[in-house]
Amino acid sequence: MKTVRQQVLRRSLLGIIGFALTASLASAASVSEVAPTEWTDQLGRFFSFRDPSLRYALVGSILLGLSCGLLGSFIVVRRMALVGDALSHAVLPGVALGFLWNMTKDPVAIFIGAIIAGLAGTSMVSALIKTTRLKADTALGLVLASFFAVGMCLLSMIQNLPTGNKSGLNAFLFGQVAALGADDIQLMGIVTGIAVLLVVLFYKELLTTSFDAGFARVSGIPAEWVHHGLMLVLAAAIVIALQAVGVVLVSAMLITPAAAAYLLTDRLHRMLMLASIFGVLAGVTGAFFSFVGRGLPTGPLMVIGASIVFAAAYFFGPRHGVLARWWRQRQSASRTERENTLKALYHVWENDGYRDVGVTLRGLAERRRETLDEALRRSEELQHHGLATINRDTVYFTPEGRQRATEIVRNHRLWELYLTNTANIAPDHVHEDAEKIEHILGESVVRELERRLNYATEDPHGKPIPGPRDIHVGPVVELGRGDK
Q1: Reduced to 3 states, what is the DSSP secondary structure of residue 474?
Q2: For the chain, how big is the Rg over CA atoms in Å?
Q3: d(CA 70, CA 476)
Q4: Domain coverage including residue 300
Q5: Listed residues 292, 320, 348: the one ending a domain
Q6: What is the pLDDT of residues 152-184, one digit of tens each?
Q7: 427, 420 in Cβ contact below 8 A?
Q8: Phi/psi of residue 245, each to 5°?
Q9: pTM of the prediction?
Q10: How many degrees, rounded to 5, is the angle at CA 147 between CA 137 and CA 76?
Q11: How many CB atoms are closer than 10 A to CB 27?
C-alpha cells in the first residue's frame, strides 16, 4: 500500500510540473478559445455543447477516463505502477515512426506504430529481467529512458522536415485535447469498447492472475497469455490517451483513479467500477475547467482532478482513510481504557468477597494507583456509557458493566493459564501479554481456550477464572444499583 501511495504522489507532482510546462502552450493545449470572453459566457457555451471541439474533447475525456480507470485497476493490484510509466514513454518512438510512414498524422498508423513500440519495450524489460541480474525497477528505468530518448530524437528530426512543424506531434508530449477529431474519437471508442469487453469476458482469469498467478497456473489458466494480453490492451489504452494528456502525465491517469478506488474497497469488481467513475470524473472536470478557465491546459487539469479524488479517498475513506483510522484508533484506546477501569473495579469487588455494596472511589484509585479526581473521571466515563452508576463516593456496576468486567477478567486469566500450560512461560511473565490480548479475544476463541484447558477454574496465580454462570448471573449475587 505504501508503494502505491508513493507512486501516486509522484504522479501528482508530475501533474504539477506538467501544468507549469504547458502554461506557455495554453493556446494549443486548452479546449477553449484564447479570445477574451466572460467566464459566464464560457459556462453557458460548455453546457450547450454547441462547439464541435468541446464535444470531441468531452467524449474523448470520458473514453480516456473509462479505459484508464478500468485497466489501471489491474496495474495497481498487480503492483505494476512503473510498467504503465515505462509503456507511456516507450510508445513515443512508435508515434514518430507512425507519422513517418506516410508523413501525415494518421491515427491508425500512429496507433499501430505506438503499439509495436510499446510491445517492444515490454519485451525488452522481460528479456533484461530473465537474462541479467537486474531487478524489475532497474530494467523498467533503462527501457523508459532509452525509448523516450529515441522518441525525442525522432520528433526533433520530424520538426526539421519541411512540413514537420505542422505535424502536431508535440501534442503527444504534453497533451492537446482540443486537437482531437472524429477519427481520434472513433479510435478511442473502439479501444475502450474492446477493453471493457475483454474485462467482462475474462474477468475471472484477470482476477485470479492478479492476486495469485501460481494458483492460476495450477488451475489451468494461461497466466502468461493473460498477462501479455493485458499488456497489449494497456498499451492500446495508453496510445489513445497520449494526445489528451501526453506522455508525461498518462501514467498518472492510469494510477491515480485506481489508487483512489483501491483505498475505498476490498473487492476488485467494485474497484473497477469506482476507478472508471473517478477516471471519467477527472476527465470531464479537466475539460470543464480548461474550457471555462480560458487557456488552462486540459491534460494537467485532468490529473489534478484525479489527484483531488485520491486525496479525498486518502483522508476521508470510510475504511482506509487517515481520519477513519485515527477515529478507530481513538475509539479502541477509549474502549480499552474503560475496560481496564471495569477490570480494576472487579478486582476490588473480588477482594471484598463480592459484597453487594459497590466499590469506593478511594478503593478504585488505590487499585489503579491514581488520584481520586482521576478515579472519578474514569467512573464518570463508565457512567456515560451505561457501564456503571455513581452514588456519592461509591461506584456500582450496571448489569452490562458487570458482565463486561467479568468477561475481561475471564479472558485475562484464561490467557495467562494458556501461556503457562502450553508455551511453558513462567507465571510471573504472562501478565503483560494477557493485558493486551484480553480486549480482543472473541467468544469463539474463548470457547476453544476453555476446551483446551479442560474448563479450568483457576489461573496460574490461584485466582478463580469466571465461568459462564459468573458472567451472566454474577459470582454470588446480582450486583446493586446506584440508588441503593
Answers
A1: coil
A2: 32
A3: 63
A4: 2-320
A5: 320
A6: 888 888 877 766 554 556 666 666 666 677 887
A7: yes
A8: -120, -15
A9: 0.74
A10: 40
A11: 11
